[in-house]
Design goal:
Strand content: 25-35%
Helix content: 25-40%
Number of helices: 10
Distance between the termini: 40 Å
Shape: globular
Bound molecules: flavin-adenine dinucleotide
Order of helices and strands: EHEEHEHEHEEHEEEEHEEEEHHEEEHH
Largest sheet: 8 strands, mixed
């Protein structure tokens, strides 16, 4: 995106607040439908979790969750989106593999998870030891098999976010970085404008796509949004020769688990142990959330257990990022009851990249009054009782 940007418009149809993969995808889908849309990003695109994640397009979840349909549909959208965007987003659909070692204490749990997905007809199959060993020479001798999600994929999330924003701009969206939304102007039950340092932008509708920042942002309107910040951490190795095409996971949530993949330029990107990471609201004010040594140590000890052969490779980068978690692990999507022209798109927990293509389409459905292609009923903000009745004072 251009470093120097045009002035802010005084008005538009829809303001999308938040330039991560979700906001960029929403702006893109709205622009495609001819909506006059403005995307506001406080810093630079993908500065939040969208530029700091593992890039797995992994649809594994509690198979009974209503989100499963959303995940599978979102995952299935990537190939067409990758074609459509006119930018190489490094999407590959080589599956993801949850591996088991003979020493693991969660063998039963992993098998049970696998069977639950299989019984519901999800795209999974079991790989025996030999098949796993053939997938990468990095797997250790004591691997006993793996649970393959063969429709999963990988994407470069930074490229995805920029490609979406650029495609939105090509279709007429105005994209403005370094432009935080400072607040919303409300008249009765309507949001009438978004406040910025360069003045107010009046609009017909506002979409808020700012993950955990949505909580303080919407509190000013009397909305109690139960989205809490959760830190995730990543390591990147030096570029290595081709070692694997599949994305991998090891360990079973809620126990510490890790995930990794080899990116196109050869680095292994390794993350995880989120479930044992501490977090706090201080993360929201941090321009680049810090790593923590205990989690870094845990991730590295675990990857060397699974891939002893990489114990001596150099690490070239590491970082942390912040996700927005809801109490029931479902996102918050759709219109708010209190302010019907205010639309929520946050609370993606650990899978907002996977969701992004579909998030864009369903939120564009909501904004344009079309019937959403999946039911959004489970994702209403009002499922949390506190949000129903509290009024702004
Ligand atoms: C370490 C880590 C690993 C992960 N791995 C995966 C993975 O492998 N697969 C997967 O699917 N997901 C993964 N995730 C989760 C995924 O990254 C997020 O769910 C997703 O990026 C959320 O995208 P978003 O656009 O909704 O939010 P974000 O990317 O957080 O974007 C929100 C944006 O809003 C901006 N903003 C905040 N306040 C304002 C304001 N007032 N005005 C304007 N802009 C504002 C922020 O600067 C930010 O750019 C991971 C996350 C982390 C941290």
């Amino acid at each position: 995106m251009a470093l120097l940007q045009a002035p802010l418009p005084a008005s538009c149809d829809v303001v999308v607040v938040g330039g991560g993969a979700s906001g960029a995808s929403i702006a893109y889908q709205l622009a495609k439908r001819g909506v006059d849309v403005l995307l506001l990003e406080a810093t630079v695109l993908a500065r939040g979790a969208s530029g700091r994640n593992g890039g797995l397009v992994d649809a594994a979840l509690d198979p009974a969750s209503p989100l499963m349909e959303f995940y599978l549909r979102a995952s299935a959208s990537f190939a067409a989106l990758a074609e459509e965007l006119e930018t190489d987003i490094e999407y590959v659909q080589d599956g993801s593999l949850q591996i088991l070692l003979d020493s693991d204490i969660d063998i039963e749990e992993t098998h049970a998870d696998f069977r639950a997905h299989l019984d519901r007809g999800y795209p999974v199959r079991w790989c025996d030891r030999d098949e796993v060993l053939a997938m990468s020479k990095l797997f250790p001798e004591n691997v006993i098999g793996g649970w393959l999600r063969y429709e999963d994929g990988q994407v470069n999330p930074l490229l995805l976010t920029y490609a979406l924003a650029e495609a939105a701009a090509r279709r007429g969206a105005k994209v403005r970085q370094h432009t935080p939304a400072r607040g919303l102007v409300v008249s009765g039950e309507r949001v009438t404008a978004v406040q910025t340092d360069a003045g107010d932008v009046t609009c017909e509708q506002v979409v808020v796509a700012i993950e955990p920042w949505s909580r303080p942002f919407l509190a000013a309107l009397g909305l109690d949004v139960p989205v809490t910040p959760q830190r995730g951490q990543i390591f990147v190795t030096e570029p290595l020769p081709p070692l694997m095409t599949i994305a991998c996971l090891y360990g079973n949530s809620p126990n510490p688990y890790i995930y990794w993949r080899q990116t196109r330029h050869g680095s292994l990107t390794i993350g995880g142990c989120r479930t044992v990471d501490t977090h706090g609201d201080w993360l929201l004010g941090s321009p680049g959330p810090a790593n923590s040594l205990d989690i870094q140590k845990m991730i590295l000890e675990t990857i060397v257990k699974v891939h002893p052969g990489i114990a001596d490779v150099s690490l070239i980068r590491w970082w942390a990022g912040v996700m927005g978690f809801t109490p029931d692990r479902l996102p918050i999507l759709g219109r708010t009851e209190r302010y019907p022209n205010l639309v929520s798109a946050f609370g993606f927990c650990p899978n907002g990249i996977l969701c992004a293509p579909l998030t864009g389409r369903v939120i564009a459905d909501v904004v344009t009054g079309a019937e959403a292609e999946v039911t959004l009923e489970p994702y209403r903000l009002e499922r949390f009782a506190a949000t129903k009745r509290r009024r702004a004072s």
